[in-house]
Every structure is written in C-alpha cells, then in structure tokens.
Amino acid sequence: MKSSRAVLVHVLALASVLTLPTLSRAQQQKAQPIVISGSSTVYPFSQAAIKLFTPKTPKGVSFQANAQGTSAGFRSFCARNIPIAAASRPINASELKACKSNGVDFLELPIAFDAITIVVHPSNTFVKEISLAQLKTLWEKKAQAKILRWNQLNPNWPASTIKLCGPGADSGTYDVFNKAVNGSETNSRQDYTASEDDNVLVKCVANTPGALGYFGYDYYQGNQTVLRALPVKGLRGTVMPSAASVQDSRYLPLSRPLFLYVNAASLRSTPAIRLFIVQTLERGIQVADKAKLIPLKDSTYRLVLNKLYRNILGSAFAGRLPIGLSVGQILERSFDQHKQPQFR
Predict the structure, then answer these.
(1) Which of 197, 213, 240 is the C-terminal boundary of a domain?
(2) Fewer CB near the last or first residue (10 Å), C or N of the chain?
(3) Which is more confidently placed, 337 or 50?
(4) Which residues form the domain of 303?
C-alpha cells in the first residue's frame, strides 16, 4: 500500500501535468527555452534530466542547460535572467544579498553529491597519493611562480615541471577546493590553465604527461582511460574518491553537495518548470547515475520533494561553505526547518 507521502507526490505531479498549457503554433515559434545555467559539474545532471523529461514535454516547451560556472549562474539567477541555477556550492552571502535586493525568492534543492577529484596523466607512476598539505603547498597564492616542480612537493619525486590545470574563479569547484585546501575561497595561485569548462581541464591533463588538475568526479568518471585519480590524505586518512567514500563521509574535506536553485515565482507561474523539477527529483538516482555523479539516497530525494511541496524558501547554509561536514550533517542542515524561509 502506498504511503500518504507517495500518494501526495503522484497527485501533485499529475496535477502539474494536467495544468500544462497547450501552445498555439505562433506561441510555439516564439517560445524561448527554459534555461538551467551555472555549474559545469552539475551540467551533466541538468542534461540528463532534460533528456529524461523531453518525451513528456508539451509542444512549444523546451529546456536548455548551459555551463558557465556557479558564480556566473548565480549572477544571472539573482538578476532574474534565468529561472533555475545549477550550483556546486551553496549560495554565498553577496549572492543572497543580490537575490534579496531584486526580489528573488528561491528554493534550494540538493540533487547529488560530488568528490572534487585530483588527477594526473596516466603515465605519472611516481605519485601514489597526495596530501592536503602538499596540495596547499602547490595551489596556495604564495606558491605562484615558486612551486613549479614535482620534487618541491616530495624530494623523492622527479625535478620535472608540473603543469597545473584547474577551474576558473567563476567555478564553485574553485571556491570549495580553495576553502577546503587553502583556507579561503580566494587563496589560489593564478599561474595555471584555468577554465569553467571541465572538458578543457580534462584535455589539459590528458594531453600533458607532467600535468595535475582538479575538477568534479563526473568528468573523471567519463575519462578514466586518459586520467588517473589520486588518493587524498585528508581528514579520514588516505582515501580514493568514489561514491562509497563520499556516502560514507570518508572523502573529506573534498566532498560536497550539488544543488538546483529554483525561482519561486517561476515555479508558481510555469507548470512546466514545476513538472520538470518533480520528475527530476522522482528520478534522482537515475539522473545522477546517467550524469556519473554520486546520487542521494532514494529516501533523501523524497525529503527534497517534501521541501519542494512545502515551499521552503531560502538557503539553509547562511551564505557559508559547508567544508568538512559529513554527508549526514550537510543534509541535516539543508533540511533544517528552523532556518527557513528568510534569507540571511
């Protein structure tokens, strides 16, 4: 027998379907895609969700995913230019202020987890693991133009040049990595190949034997034949990035939640957006698997659906990055009813 919650989910989803408008031919020609923009790490999730949703999309309604970086996505979102932002970190204090000043109320919906993955070229056989201390030595601001060779990290490694590849400053991955490793979102060297497009970073490492880079787990998963992931000596010992190590809260502090932020007014006024979000959360594990991300538990996706139906607005993270928290602590904070609905 179905639970009352499950019945509620299906009734509301059905109601959304029944209220979807039928567009005239002229309206179909004028209709613009509903844009999901932001994190390149979340981009494969958005693409997978759109592909799964398309067969049930009414004529004249379409969705489009863009990858421009979490920060750029939030700028567009808080300026009311897009209805859905994809983010690889929680919204920060200045973005909360921008949204509030523009009258943008939103729902913060966790959709998956990620492991920021440290990768090298497959021909690199001398680096067996890397520590947080070594990553800090390599990536902090004062390393710029000074830490250039492998043996500066470990005297047993060769004196060959390190080619660095990493996210640009508009990337949520950049923020989380630097806060976790270097103590501040802005404490990063800048003399490296930077891009908000993770495919560029994959090629940067894959085409350079002396390279080291970092980016989302999904891009490593899709390119394992040309990349080698390093175990990281972190808060819980030396751990490889994996679904299991993230879900067990062992890959700390480089695991993190991923989000969709949805404009509350758009959710109310555009049935297609509501239906898209409902179907995406109902199929959360399937969508995350297709995107090669680390899914939430099925019971957690039901909690996120409940958050949607209860219309719980605002952010549960008070503009701060949840660095070093366990999966359970992050989810508990995300669903903390006492921190809603006001902005902070």
Answers:
(1) 240
(2) N
(3) 50
(4) 4-113+257-339
